[in-house]
Structures are given as structure tokens and as C-alpha cells.
TrEMBL record:
Record's keyword annotation contains Transferase: yes
Known EC number: 2.1.1.131
Record carries keyword Methyltransferase: yes
Family annotation (NCBIfam families): cobJ_cbiH (TIGR01466)
GO molecular function, one term: precorrin-3B C17-methyltransferase activity
Pathway: Cofactor biosynthesis; adenosylcobalamin biosynthesis
Residues annotated as signal peptide: none
Protein known as: Precorrin-3B C(17)-methyltransferase
Keywords: Cobalamin biosynthesis, Methyltransferase, S-adenosyl-L-methionine, Transferase
Short name of one Pfam family: TP_methylase
BP term (GO), one: cobalamin biosynthetic process
Residues of the Tetrapyrrole methylase domain: 3-209
Length: 243
């Protein structure tokens, strides 16, 4: 049976890639992915065949992977972060329905929520949710509802894809929705260029976050009502000291 690994390579640097991901890439003949992600691993895996497609060509990328595997190659499809969190794993299974002779193996990776949380401190110790602000594949009305309900439920919230040239005001709109249920003093944080050159972070209030400029390389963390700024670190208590 043909074999494709679907691999989350983490936030970008080799050191935050799992050992399982490294082993699978070493076993592969061909590594396929979005151009930016392939460029992150090329130097570490010399001698491999690398194939890329630009953004918005995800289906083409998946078909390419299955076609290469059909030639008898061991193939890796790579994604940033975790392949099962806003990654390619789901689409690979969908496209894979047409390739019954190919086995998929998903290799977990470190998603931006985990890597960014480690930079900020401990913001995700209690219940939290991930919400993407990109309305490319999800209607804004549905994103809006999720933001409102997650805020009302007092989740800590991680926002992916918080802004772009076409969505310059989406973080501001999201903050306005969350401010309906959350205090303006809610502790928040941002981390940019996670695991890459130029990594940095800031901690601020929700009111301050509303007017903060971010980009697609920024991950945004909104605390719950218990989250605190402790010596410059964003910390959400689990409640162990109250037991």
C-alpha cells in the first residue's frame, strides 16, 4: 500500500518539530507543501524532492501528494503547526477517498496556541477555544456567533489569522464583540513570528488589544475572568490552590 505522512512541522524552527515528524521526513522521498513551509525545512532535509503549490491551491497540493505516492514514493505533506488544527489532515482524508490504495498517517505538531502560550507564560491552563478570524472559508456571521458565545462562557480564547490587508479591522471587530461579555481589563497577549526570527510578545488589556495592530503572523490570546498578569507573564489559574 502507498504511504503519505501528513505532518505538522510546528511553528517554524527545527527545534520545535517533534521527533516523530523528523523521522517521517527522513523516511520520505518527496516532501510537499505550501512554498513558505517547504522553505522552512529544505535545508534540514537535503537530498529530498520538494514540490510546492501557492496559497489557495490546497486541493491541487493534496492531489499532487496522492499522485506522487501512486508512483511508489513515500510522501510527506507538511503544514505549519499541527496538521489537524486548521491544517491539511481533513482535506487529505477527503481527497484520499478517491485513492483507496494509499494509507495516510497523521503526525502531530505543535500548534501556535501551544507555542505562543509558552512564550506568554501559562494562559491556557483552564478551558479554552481556538477561533480563526479568517472568513475565507467560514462566514463572518458564524465567526461572530462563536466569539460571542465563547466570551459569554468565559473561555480563554486564542485567535488565529487575526488580520490581513483585506481584513484590517477584524481584530477590532472581534474585540468589540468580546467586550459585550468580557471586562475591558481582561488580560490579553499577542505573540508574533512564533519560533522564527523576530519572535516577540506583548501583554495588555482587552481594551488595549482592540487598538493594537497585528498581522497574519500574530497569534492573539484573550484571557478569562481569572487570568492575571503575574510578573510580566500571562497566567490563567486552574484552581489547584482552592482545592
Amino acid at each position: 500500500m502507498n504511504k503519505i505522512y501528513v505532518i505538522g512541522i510546528g511553528p517554524g524552527n527545527y527545534e520545535q518539530m517533534t521527533m516523530a515528524a523528523v523521522q517521517a521526513l527522513e523516511e520520505s522521498d518527496t516532501i510537499i507543501g505550501y512554498t513558505v513551509y517547504v522553505d522552512l525545512v529544505k535545508d534540514r532535509f537535503p537530498g529530498k524532492e520538494f514540490l510546492t503549490t501557492p496559497m489557495t491551491k490546497e486541493v491541487d497540493r493534496c492531489v499532487m501528494a496522492f499522485e506522487e505516492a501512486a508512483k511508489g514514493k513515500t510522501v510527506s505533506m507538511i503544514c505549519s503547526g499541527d496538521a489537524g488544527v486548521y491544517g491539511m489532515a481533513g482535506l487529505m482524508y477527503e481527497v484520499g477517498a478517491g485513492y483507496p490504495d494509499t494509507e495516510l498517517q497523521i503526525i502531530a505538531g505543535v500548534t501556535a496556541a501551544n507555542a505562543g502560550a509558552a512564550v506568554l507564560g501559562a494562559p491556557l491552563i483552564h478551558d479554552f477555544c481556538l477561533i480563526s478570524l479568517s472568513d475565507l472559508l467560514t462566514p463572518w456571521e458564524k465567526i461572530e456567533k462563536r466569539l460571542r458565545l465563547a466570551s459569554e462562557a468565559d473561555f480563554s480564547i486564542v485567535l488565529y489569522n487575526p488580520s490581513s490587508k483585506k481584513r484590517a479591522d477584524y481584530l477590532q471587530k472581534a474585540c468589540d464583540l468580546m467586550l459585550e461579555s468580557k471586562s475591558p481589563e481582561t488580560v490579553c497577549g499577542i505573540v508574533f513570528n512564533i519560533g522564527r526570527e523576530g519572535e516577540g510578545s506583548r501583554i495588555m488589556t482587552l481594551a488595549e488589544l482592540r487598538d493594537t495592530k497585528v498581522d497574519m503572523f500574530t497569534t492573539v490570546f484573550i484571557g478569562n475572568s481569572q487570568t492575571r498578569n503575574l510578573k510580566g507573564k500571562m497566567v490563567t489559574p486552574r484552581g489547584y490552590r482552592n482545592v
